[in-house]
Amino acid sequence: MSHKFDSFLTLRIPSEPEKKFFDCKNSAVLHSKTGHKLCSSSFALSLFIAFSEVGNIGWQVGWEKLKMQFIKFNNEGNENFSTHARKRKNFTGRYFTHPAVEESKKSPSSNEYFGKFEELKHYIEHLSRKVQSDEANMSEEEKSILFKNLLSECHGHEISVLREKDCFNNLLIIIGDNASIAMELLWKIVKIRKKVILTLMTSYGGALEKLLAVALNESEGSRKASVLLKLSEIALENVDSLSVQHGGSHLLRRLGSAISGVEKCAHNGATPIFSAKNENEPKRFEANFLNQAEFISIYNNLAGRVLNWKSIREFANREPFSLLVQDFIAFDSSFNCTFVNGLLPSILEEKKKTVYSMLTNKQASRVWDQYIRFSSIENVLKLYENCFRGSVARLISDQYANYPLQQMIRKVDDSVLAKELYEEVLQCFDEIWKARLYGVVHSLCIFVREKPQLETILVEKIKTVLNCRDPKICEAHFLRCLLSMQRYVQDKVFLKKIKYFGSVLTQTLATFSTKEFFFEQMLNLPYEDFLQISSTSLGSYAVEALVKAAETLDQRKAVVNKILPITFKLANNRFGSRVLECVWENCDVEERLPIMDAMLKCSLNSQTGKLLAAKFSLDKYKISCWSTARMPNALPDLHTIQELKDIAHKLRIHSIRATNASNSGHPTSCCSMAEIMSVLFFHTMKYDPKNPRDPYNDRFILSKGHAGPILYACWVEAGLIPESELLNLRKIDSDLEGHPTPRLSFVDVATGSLGQGLSCAAGMAYVMKFMDKIDSRVYCVLGDGESAEGSVWEALHFAGMYELDNLVAIFDINRLGQSQPASLGHRIDVYQQRFEAFGWNVECVDGHDVEALCRSFSSAAGVKHKPTAIVAKTFKGCGIPKVEDQENWHGKALGKEAAAALEAINSRIKNFDHHKLSINLPRIDPSKPLKANDFSNVKLSEPPNYKIGEKVATRLAYGTALVKLGKSCDHVVALDGDVKNSTFADKFKNAFPDRFIECFISEQNMVGVAVGCSTRSRTLPFCSTFATFFTRAFDQLRMGAISGANVKCCGSHAGVSIGEDGPSQMGLEDIAMFRTLPGSTVFYPSDAVSCERAVELAARVNGICFIRTGRPNTPVIYSNEEQFSIGQAKIVRHSDKDRLMIVTAGVTLFEAFTAADVLAKEKGLHVCICDLFTVKPIDKRTLAEQAKRVGGKVLTVEDHYPEGGIGDAVASALAEYSDIQLTSLAVNALPRSGPPDSLMDMFGISAKHIIEACVQLAGHA
Q1: Contact predicate 1100/938, CB 8 Å
Q2: In Å, what is the CA distance from 985 to each residue of 83, 935, 952?
Q3: pLDDT confidence band for 770 (50 / 70 / 90)
Q4: Residues paired with 973 in a beta bridge
């Protein structure tokens, strides 16, 4: 039998298994821990509190966020229950009661309270921690139940609760702003004896005042009036004793505030920044008692006792009474200042010595300050005439008396007495400035507004003390004083006098100049100086002024971005935290969102920092209620969150079905990133699903390409691919391959060879930010296993160095690799530290928490000058029973386990229909249309300009041609690996610095970046380094070829002809390597003219091109008008007497020329010489024709290893001709350092060896 009272609790008779587990009988009586009998012995009930760990014993209901604990069962006659209770996991004995159970307390047998105060105190402390935790996202109904039961628990202990400071503070945390509960507690207190209430008011008035402040917000007026009346009557009878006690004074102030309808003053002395006028009006609220005669009478009696000159003169030097008087002066303004005006005659009769004594006292001077503030101008002038005239010079330099005098200066008008006061102050201006009484200066500035003559005099005074006549320099001096104020911190004599130095000087600056000057100078400060200023007692006021000076949205964002990098250091600093609090108070929620996210991930040790973090953490609850239309990357609403969760589960289902259909694939790798993909594709990214290649789209790169099925699943959910196509995964007639390739319109680069995606993403982000200059973003998902690749860290360095804040790398840290766990497992902190060391903003997040992911991506969008790494802790195979977080499931379809997995995942889906989320379309600037560029007609801006025979290195000609190409096409970009002064790419950098990308010594990343730059035909990248160093980037080149990348590579310093640098620098494998790439073109120009034309032709042809250049200066052999074509060789020497053909290119061409001359002259042997120009595609037709013409004798010569070079290329081209005899000369051993000519001779490719080979080859005829 079950008794369900609401959606929160359920009472029911225990089932048989439960009786056995809890060792209780049907006749058991349920007690609370404090002794309350919850039900009669005739009606045995068990009470269950639902939360996520209850399992199948409890009743699953509402309140999952607040982790409630089990009740404690006591068995009548069985004292052993507590022993059995410990069997249950999470059983602690703490409980919550329910209002329905309270009926059972009405029986005579159960109305006695057995609880102890110590238990109650611990209980309240426990609840306060729960309420403060993130899990305490309670509904109003749940709070109501909690508060009512709490009042029940406090019954009989109300006085003890107020007396215990920590206990009462915890109680206030629990009560929060619930006025009805606070009033309920007060209602019980006022019903006890008057003597006890007086004791509370005297000794614990502060606690009572805080409770009263909350209770006064209750809407029910009758009970509020009764409580106020009772407390006011007792207060009135004991004003003298209460007014000099801190707690009693606070209570009297609260009572006066409630009756007068005027807010109780904060008394922090802070002056509004850039205030246009003197604000004297106190803050008011609606008071319900102003028209009730009994309260008017009480107020008059209270005000008469407090605003009494005799009492003020005697007790104003005591802080409690001083604060009380200050507040009642403000309260009295609601009643036409009756009592304030009544003080003047007594003051005028007082001795000046007494008045001066009060003015120089800290507390009493504050009373004077408040009195002058709320007095009429006529009374202030009378006060000056009778008490202050002639004494201003003596009083103005006092650290306390100057404040009332400042108020007086601001208050007075244009009367003769006012001008006399002003002149008296000006007479001692130099002393005021030397004493650094800048508050007085500020008051004078306020006084002279709209008084041109007086303003001119004051400005001249200020310029004089600044030793300056130039207004701009004057402003700079003011600013310098403002920004260097920390120098005064050690000056203890004047420390208190310049407490508000920053505020005052800022306002003074605003008086004579514009806020824009101050704003600009502050934002341009280096971060080190800005942090130093923000972290000092006085400097923090300047930064607060900066925050308050920001009037527009852009200005506030600029301030937040300035503060963001030093958030952590400020939060743990007492003064810096004041700056952050100022941001919280003066910026809207969406403006301070980046700081909120920074605060949430800070490890704050100081109490100030923790309180500040708690304040910022409230923002996330405010943001969660906003519409995504206002802030599309902020936290979504609850409906969207559920939709994103459902999509994540559907992506898992698609991935499992697809891999099962192909009987291969990586479903577990897909499942670990399901929530990441759901949030990215259906909440964060902006793209047009109907036009995946739109240049304005956000880009997505799946670096962990083996998770391709989940990428395909996303595009199914986006509507681009039919769901049925997923079942064709990995089939020969399907474009849904095992790893993504650009055969699919939504894939920019092929991935799957791990560690390369981030470099490509960095290239895309670079082009978007610096060339296209659009606000689109690039997202790249990497696995934790591939993060061991060196190319990943090269890319991290590159992106951090270039501050690619439009790049987000998501690291899917699922712990498991292919054959064993990844090296770092789930050590998220290590990943964070490493990425931060590379200059990245890092967000650590639960990768399966949709809401947390939304927040992290939103935070990343607000970060400037840093790329963002989202380190997502995930579990491989998440959601799959018996597979999640288990080894040996990598790269395996689920097979027989698929049915159970699909059933388990389906059970978590709330909405099986197609999602209703709208994909965010890209922001397109109609004034700047972007489209794919056509490079097929690109040409040099001017033809080559060389003289025949002029010696020019081909590497130099490459640099010259690149500049010419850059002039004719502004989409050409150059990349180099820190050898630009050797490859001569520096010529392009000098001509087009904005289009040159220095990649430093990281060739793998350079090629990856170039591939990224080339995507969607946004740019035409040329990357250069030594030919031999491209070998380390061969995998990137191979994947670039699979991607169809349009990348041009120039490898200089090829072969042994580079000389003394030795074999590590000699490119001897490069031709072979580039020839193997599908669709590649390999150029080997021999002189400067052919090299420039090779660059031009490479730009026109789509695909990967390699241009091999040499270090030595070689003669120009072609005219500037010579025409070149891809796949067309040049016969540079021939005659009718030719008996064999030498096929070569590059530096060995000139060795062939030398050999040919010797052979013709000394041996009478004439040879034909062929300059290949392009090794791939090779000119098969010309080679065959010339070979037959000379009798079938062919010799190849190359500065390259034999394997895969020119010899192999020619042999392959002529293989079908059986009558052609081929001999090859190549570098035949491991080379060494030495002079170029000697090395060429040593390794068999010099003219001497060519002669010998030709003679030998011709002798076979």
Answers
A1: yes
A2: 81, 20, 16
A3: very high
A4: 1021
> Rounded CA gap, 6 and 12, in Å?
13
The first and second tokens of residue 672, run together, are 């670990």
Interaxial angle between packed helices 501-512 and 438-447, expressed in degrees from 0 to 180 and rounded to the nearest 10: 30
Highest average pLDDT, of 577-581, 916-920, 1248-1252, comes from: 1248-1252
Residue of 1003, 1069, 1096, 1198 with catalytic role: 1003
Q: To which CATH superfamily is domain 309-442 assigned?
A: Leucine-rich Repeat Variant (1.25.10.10)
Q: Residue 528 and residue 531: Cα distance in Å, rounded?
A: 5
Instruction: Give the gyration radius of the chain's Cα atoms.
Output: 42
In 3-state terms, what secondary structure has residue 432?
helix
pLDDT-derived band of residue 1110, with 50, 70 and 90 as boundaries? Answer: very high
Instruction: Tell me the pLDDT band of 1131, cut-offs 50, 70 and 90.
Output: very high
Please check whether residue 32 is in contact with residue 97, taking contact to mean a CB–CB distance below 8 angstroms: yes
Does the annotation mark 1003 as catalytic? Answer: yes
* CATH fold label, 443-626: Leucine-rich Repeat Variant (1.25.10)
What is the C-alpha to C-alpha distance for residues 721 and 681, in angstroms, rounded to an integer? 14
In the chain, where the domains are located: 114-126+139-263, 309-442, 443-626, 638-907, 950-1116, 1131-1258
**Are the CB atoms for 641 and 682 separated by under 8 Å?**
no
* pLDDT tens profile 425-442: 777 777 776 666 666 766
Sign (positive/negative) of CA torsion 854, 859, 865, 869?
Answer: negative
Q: Please give the full DSSP string across 755-776, using - where no structure is assigned.
A: T-HHHHHHHHHHIIIIII----
CA distance 1102 to 723: 34
Per residue in 365-416, pLDDT (tens digit) is: 788 778 887 787 778 777 777 777 777 777 776 777 777 777 777 666 666 6
Query: From CA 592, how far away is CA 1183, in angstroms rounded?
Result: 71
Which H helix or E strand runs over 661? helix 638-662
* Of the options 1.10.630.10, 3.40.50.970, 3.40.50.300, 3.30.70.20, the CATH number for the domain spanning 950-1116: 3.40.50.970
Tens-digit pLDDT profile for residues 93-109: 333 333 333 333 333 33
Q: What is the dihedral of CA 494, 498, 502, 506, to 10 degrees?
A: -120
Residue 1256 contacts residue 1164 (beta carbons within 8 Å): no
Altogether, the residues listed in the chain come to a count of: 1261
- Within 10 angstroms of residue 328's Cβ, the number of other Cβ atoms is 27
Element (H, E) at 1195: strand 1193-1197
CA distance 855 to 348: 64
How do residues 616-629 score in pLDDT, each as one tens digit?
665 544 443 332 32
Q: Rounded to whole angstroms, how far apart are CA atoms 75 and 23? A: 8
- Count CB atoms within 10 A of the CB of residue 16: 7
The confidence score (pLDDT) of residue 1080 equals 98
- Is the peptide bond preceding residue 1177 cis, with omega within 30 degrees of 0? yes
